[in-house]
From TrEMBL:
Pfam families on file: Costars (PF14705)
PANTHER family hit by this protein: COSTARS FAMILY PROTEIN ABRACL, COSTARS FAMILY PROTEIN-LIKE
Residue ranges of every copy of the Costars domain listed in the record: 1-79
Naturally occurring in which organism (per UniProt): Arabidopsis lyrata subsp. lyrata
Protein name: Costars domain-containing protein
GO biological process, alphabetically ordered: regulation of actin filament-based process
Record-stated family: Belongs to the costars family.
Coiled coil: none
Length: 93
């Protein structure tokens, strides 16, 4: 699995385990993700996948490196998808 596929799987798992926020984002703690059996089977390097997703601005969390135990309560936010490009559709009409 390449990085893009892993990030897509990470998004799916945050949707499954996280809580929907009023702004359309999802939040889950690192401990919930790290200790989930399904995530453990999918991700060989969860922390690396999280860092790659953060670099691409798909998720947000405090700090650079998350460690089991120490950072279990750190919230990971899956940013809401961008709105559909309505302005482009109106301009082409």
């Amino acid at each position: 699995m390449n990085v893009e596929e892993e990030i897509q799987k990470l998004e799916e798992e945050i949707h499954r385990l996280g809580s929907l926020q009023t702004d359309g984002s999802y939040k889950v703690t690192f401990g919930v993700l790290f200790n989930d059996d399904r995530c453990a089977n999918i991700f060989e390097a969860l922390v690396g996948t999280l860092r790659a997703a953060k670099k691409r601005k798909i998720v947000a969390f405090q700090g650079e490196l998350l460690l089991q135990g120490v950072h279990d309560k750190v919230e990971i936010t899956l940013r809401p998808p961008p709105p559909p490009p309505q302005a482009a559709a109106v301009a082409s009409s």
